[in-house]
Amino acid sequence: MIPTIPQPRALSLAYTAYIIAFFVFLALPLVVVAVFAFNDSQFPSLPWEGFTWNWFFGSERPMIGVFHERPILRAIGTSCFVAILVSLLSVAVGTSNAFLFNRYRFRGQGLLYVFMLLPLVIPGIVLGISILVFSSRVANGLWDMAQWDWEALRPGLLLVILGQFSFIATIATLVIGARLQKFDRSLEEAAMNLGANRLTAVRTITIPYLAPAMIGAFVVAFLMSFENFNTTLMLVGSDAPLTIAMFDRLKEGSTPLLNAVSLLLMIGSSLLALVMIAFQRRS
Amino acid sequence: MRAEAKLGFILLLSPLVVWLSLLILIPHIDMLLVSLRERVGVGEYRISLANYLTFINEPLYLRTFIRTAMMSILATTITLLIAFPVSYYIAKIARGRVQSALFLLCLVPFWVSELVRTFGWMILLRETGIISNLLQALGLVDGPVELLYNDAAIMVGLVYTSMLFMVVPLVTTLESLPDEVIEAGYDLGGNGISVLREIIIPHATPGIVSGCIVVFMLSLGNYLTPIMLGGKDSLWFTELIYSQFIVRFNWELGAAFGFLLLGLSSFIVWGMLKLTGQSLEKTMG
Hints:
The complex is a heterodimer. Chain A is mainly alpha-helical. Chain A has a domain at about 75-250: MetI-like (MetI-like fold, Orthogonal Bundle), CATH 1.10.3720. Helix content of chain A is about 70%, strand content about 0%. In chain A, strands 1-2 form a two-stranded antiparallel sheet. In chain A, helix 1 crosses helix 11 (about 255-280), helix 5 packs across helix 6 and helix 8 (about 200-225) packs antiparallel against helix 11. Chain B is mainly alpha-helical. Helix content of chain B is about 75%, strand content about 5%. Chain B has 13 helices and 2 strands; from the N terminus they run αββαααααααααααα. Chain B has helices spanning about 1-35, 50-55, 60-95, 95-105, 115-125, 130-135, 150-175, 180-185, 190-220, 225-230, 235-245, 250-275, 280-285, and strands spanning about 35-40, 45. Chain B has a two-stranded antiparallel ribbon with strand order 1-2. At the A-B interface, helix 1, helix 3, helix 4, helix 5 and helix 6 of A face helix 1, helix 3, helix 4, helix 5 and helix 8 of B. Chain A: Keywords: Cell membrane, Membrane, Transmembrane, Transmembrane helix, Transport.
């Protein structure tokens, strides 16, 4: 079934209808979330009570908008902080890994590569609890040995960052490694023939070549960290990132405030994705 | 020069080793050790299989485990069946701009948090929701209908959430199949079904395998969708892990549950790779 092979008209019509239905299915939940952010009612459901901006800008009870809701704003800040650190760490380690697997041949390399892929096939919640168990064992050990209570090893932001990093680093490695594989190494050799040492050659030739992949990996890591739920849930302390804060509210019952936050999230992440695509096109 | 290369090697190797050992290997070994101990007094433990025996002897745990596995397999199958025609359309029938636009449209929903997607389905399916109101307006039902809080709602949520991870690998493998091969299939007397069975599906196998692995894993390890869309009776195995760890503070049993979940997911991934003769490097990398 390809365009060059004629097909019965009814069949290709049915196929097109199926594709349209599929995209309606994809869009429906998101459209509904976005539309009800503007409902002038306490509940994100029918009946439609009229259009309002209050769930964004409202400052009086019972309709406090996103921009006046302190806990939500703080949770967004926490999420951004975590996401930036996770992305920086992942891109740094990912670049190092990409060079390691691309430039060196050593014993056990294949095995190490498979091991590096494993975090992708471990359920997020299991990653979370294993890090929780291990970090609390280390914390207890420090206490028993030196009476030193290292707070950072208890559930909290450090563990959230490490937990997310533990699998996002694999993705960064794959993204950056794929571009490094396409790099023509004779360019580096040319730079060295012209008098550069290896480090200078890598810094002035290879790293600029890798830059689009590094930025791409950063954006992907940022978005994955921002929307991560399972691993974060097991490691979170008192500072909840946005997904956890929204989850807690959703359990209590939802107001269109959550729709407003969701709409902002959708706009933010689509903008970020568009910027990334535009950037990749240009380079 | 050789010494310099060796230094570079060690510098590049160490972040990888630190990451994999401190965040993956040692925590998992530790979790295994915790799951193998039994509390006999305050701060006193001994090695035993008690936690695993609890799992086998308590019908609720075992039933939830099997149910989670079965529903994840079902969700994977449904996702594959829905995604295959769509991926084929994007890869082989759509052309040029339409093709890239459709592909991008598939990606868009997944840049949004899973929480938002689940929330969207709650608004659609609940008693006062859109679908219930639509059915009433059409006169198909008399009163409000509750479509949320049952297994079908979980299934819808799981399939929706994992769609992207099936479509992307399928489109990538199907795109690499030359049109001429399909034409040759027809020229040699094949019809739509035999071409699909003998040419298209064998070619798409690597994509099908990697899509199924990821979707299965995501469904098995999902927490949000079953808890938000499922009812009181539709327990998911991850909920048991969460409640043992956070609510009951029984880390030994929780660790055992975590290991069982990890074991099941590894077993299925391994089985799928073996069955189709693929390797993890090829399907993931």
